[in-house]
Amino acid sequence: MPNPTPSPTRIEAIGHSSLGRPLLVYHHGSPQAPLRLFFLCGQHGDERAVQRAAERFSLALEASPELLGHQLQVAILPSANPDGTALRTRHNAQGLDLNRDHLHLLTPETQAIHRFVAQWRPHLTVDMHNFPSRRLHLLNRGVRLAWDLCLDFPTNPAVPLRDGHPLFASLSETLDQRLSAAGFRFGRYTMVEPNGSSRHGTPQRLDARNVLALRYGAPVVLLEARNPSARNAPHDPRHIRRATLLACHELLRWATAHAASLLAPPPAPTRVPLRSRRRKAASPLPIPVIQLATGQPELLLSAPYRPSVQGRRSVSLPLAYAVPRTETTILALLRRHGIFPTAPSPIPGCQLIPVTPATGPLLALLLEAESSFGLHQNHSVRRITNLTETSYIEALS
Q: What is the pTM of this model?
């Protein structure tokens, strides 16, 4: 079989913003290449630096298609929130944070992103952002965060490929080695709280990295570049752009080297944790910071440090959920996620939602009464755990 040959850059409008601006995805590489990578950028309109870096990355792939080899095709969405970018606001024109809308899908922008992911099926999604290094509680201590670039992973315990998976450990090690060798400061993205505590990830707020991984099963990573500022150094914007572009190129090399693992089907879920808790580490976390007065690096000890998220109250997946037709909000949300009733219900007055390996974890989080993410406060949604109805057996066969 001949190797796929590079194709010219293709531009696809995957949807429109609240104010009608197109969401443009730039496709690079052969459509026949087996491994698909999606770079999702600009969900926050005020994070313009990472959008510019994504545009530069797209131009680099257009100028040098050989960078993708024969295995990779890449899709880049530089501006997922074009209204916010035009208005210079974090939120979209509806006043909503797109990165907090991947569960409910209330905005046309997140709906378009999910339609694209459902159709194109990337094997790895890179969710790109900027983060502010000058946090008020750190400025009061005379320091700012020192990282140039950070990486993080899904932390919700129901995600099949989440924090702690060997793939993510390999990627983190690769980027750390390459970026450090090039003179950049790299680390895991960490939330440093005003009270001095620190943690990773947002399991209780289902953002893009968690929901996309839950819904579609493929790995999602968060790539956070520091907000560049001339106050840090005159060349700081160029410095951060170089770090971001280097990380994107290294992601291509890493993905090619791990193609077999990325192309493998995601693990089938057996039990799904409905709640989570953080485990406190025995030692504080050293946070690299820069002294504002001298520009010298130092380590700030952050305690308590809660690095890992444990799942609890796990349940086995049923064959289906029976959702009362009166639960219109739940049924509408499921439809926005492309999950529809596909079989006659053995329970009168209900819509039957069969559970599949792909939809099971998300359905459990949304529909189980004990879930901390549950959409209902009672036990109106019923679990179907055995095949007692002939019509139901026929519908699932």
A: 0.94
